[in-house]
Amino acid sequence: MATNGTVGHVNGQANGNGTVAPYRYTHAYLRKARPLRIAIIGCGVSGIAAVHMFKERFRAPGQDLPIELVIYEKNKSIGGTWYENRYPGCSCDVPSHSYTFSWDGNPYFSRVYVGAPELYDYFTDRAEAYGVPEFVRLQHQFESATWNNATGQYELTVKDLATGTLVEDKAEVVINASGVLNSWKWPDFPGLETFAGKHTSADLSGKTVGVVGTGSSGIQLVPQVQAVAKHMRVAARRYSARSR
Ligand SMILES: *[C@@H]1O[C@H](CO)[C@@H](O)[C@H](O)[C@H]1NC(C)=O
Ligand SMILES: *[C@@H]1O[C@H](CO)[C@@H](O)[C@H](O)[C@H]1NC(C)=O
Ligand SMILES: *[C@@H]1O[C@H](CO)[C@@H](O)[C@H](O)[C@H]1NC(C)=O
């Protein structure tokens, strides 16, 4: 907590030669809230959870704390992973019940490993319930944050994707909820840059399809695509320990 610089009270302690050392203290009571702005990068599962926690902590009935919250989300919708991933068969790779907020289970899931649309519905529905729309700025892509030690704030630059303009903001707290798997890169296939096909949500019926990898996405994708593809080949580095 910053002191306001006012000389409050002289504590009366003499230093031995008769003079009194001025003692400064802040004119604030213990735990007095100071204005604070929290900025969150990304409104997927973590961004949505953050609003719930923010309200619980700072917006309890009777509280009037000067704490602000803003969430910058690059996409046109909240939901993160469950909005962005559109590949055939995309679903949860842990049982869906363990993929809900711990305080807000969902007894209505249709099966054990539900698909992306059902998870998207659950999380966007919870987001409405927590009041996320009040805090989120859609189509705002985080660009940079620079700590200003003199003001004790991050100086943020965010790009408004709808207009292409840069927006400046300041926040004492920045939470990176952008998702550990969201900065993926294309594999280094020669010729990839001249590929004219679609990269996501393509109609694969009658096509010859190659799949590289048998992780959870491969497991979800292959059963869906093999049913419509003309021919499919899956490349696995080796059998997994599980398949022995
Ligand atoms: C989400 O935003 C990113 C970055 O602008 C973009 O590449 C991606 O296509 C968007 N996803 C959807 C589903 O619109
Ligand atoms: C940062 O600010 C604090 C408080 O004003 C000051 O004590 C500290 O020396 C500063 N650090 C740097 C690296 O400037
Ligand atoms: C946020 O987290 C992602 C994933 O860990 C990382 O790639 C990115 O650099 C982080 N951004 C900032 C501003 O810390």
Automatic annotation (TrEMBL):
Keyword Membrane annotated: yes
Domain of life: Eukaryota
Keywords assigned by UniProt, alphabetized: Membrane, Transmembrane, Transmembrane helix
SUPFAM superfamilies, A to Z: FAD/NAD(P)-binding domain
Pfam families (alphabetical): NAD_binding_8
Transmembrane segments: 36-54
PANTHER family per the UniProt record, alphabetical: FAD_NAD(P)-BINDING DOMAIN-CONTAINING PROTEIN-RELATED, L-ORNITHINE N(5)-MONOOXYGENASE-RELATED
Name of this chain's protein: Cyclohexanone monooxygenase
Lineage of origin: Eukaryota, Fungi, Dikarya, Ascomycota, Pezizomycotina
